[in-house]
Amino acid sequence: MVSGHLPGCCQRSFDDWAECEAFLGFSIPNPLEECTWLEQATYVGMPVGFQNTPCIKASWYGTADGHVEWISVDSGYRNGDIRVIISAMLYGNPTDTKSSNSGSSVELERQNYLANLNDGPLQISSDCTANYYSNTAYQACGNMLYRFRVIDAPDIPLQVEHTMEQVVNAFHFYVTLSQKNKEIHGIIELQMKAKGGLQNVSYQYQQEQFPE
User: Which of 98, 118, 154, 164 could form a disulfide with 133 if both were Cys (CB 3.0 to 4.6 A apart)?
Assistant: First the structure.
């Protein structure tokens, strides 16, 4: 079901990441999807089935003439009782007319993308209240900006920080593995062109495991 709360801003829920990609019509890489130490949760990081909350939520802002300014896909996981939330965000060119939903907050995300694009130092912000302690980090890969949030009780900050370290390591491993795959595929394409087709093209590649 598609719903909208502000003019031009819509959202839709999905059971899994692949279903969301099929709806959008293009691939959005999820660097945490193969992490065996994480358990699938709702998009807010609560256990599956919690208040009928979906596992995946896609949101986007567009105009009446079909221009889409941004797309965000949210998913959640759990590491024990610790909540892990990933948001994958993609931005187009801004529209001339801004709504209240598409002003400074979108520009802030653009700046976060630029700040994380060229292997700059990772910035992790912390937030502590009487109810929770959280870490938030941004990472950029290709055209995507990822926001990672790790949340749990305020009395166990070290566990939250350790989980964030694992999340960041998983992200960097995913990026490295993706680059290797691109290199291998590029070599195969060159071999195919040189041989004039698919015949006699073979390669060996040992799949690496995500870090536990």
Answer: 154
9-29 pLDDT, tens per residue? 889 999 999 999 999 998 899
Backbone angles phi, psi at 210, to 5 degrees: -70, 145
Nearest to 146 by CA among 189, 112, 100, 102: 112
CA torsion, points 36, 42, 44, 46, in degrees to nearest 10?
-80
Q: For residue 77, give both structure tokens.
A: 């996981």
Phi, psi for residue 75 in degrees, rounded to 5: -145, 160
- Going by C-alpha positions, the residue among 179, 175, 178, 103 that lies closest to residue 140 is 175
51/54 Cα distance (integer angstroms): 9
All residues at 6 or more sequence positions from 34 whose CB lies less than 8 Å from its CB, including other chains: 174, 210
For residues 56 and 15, the answer to whether their CB atoms sit within 8 Å is yes
Q: What is the mean pLDDT of the chain?
A: 78
Q: Tell me which long-range contacts 150-158 makes (C-beta under 8 A, separation of at least 24).
A: 150/82, 150/83, 150/84, 150/85, 151/45, 151/82, 151/83, 151/85, 152/81, 152/82, 152/83, 153/81, 154/128, 154/129, 154/130, 157/126, 157/128, 157/133
Ranges of H-type helices in the chain: 17-24, 104-116, 157-195
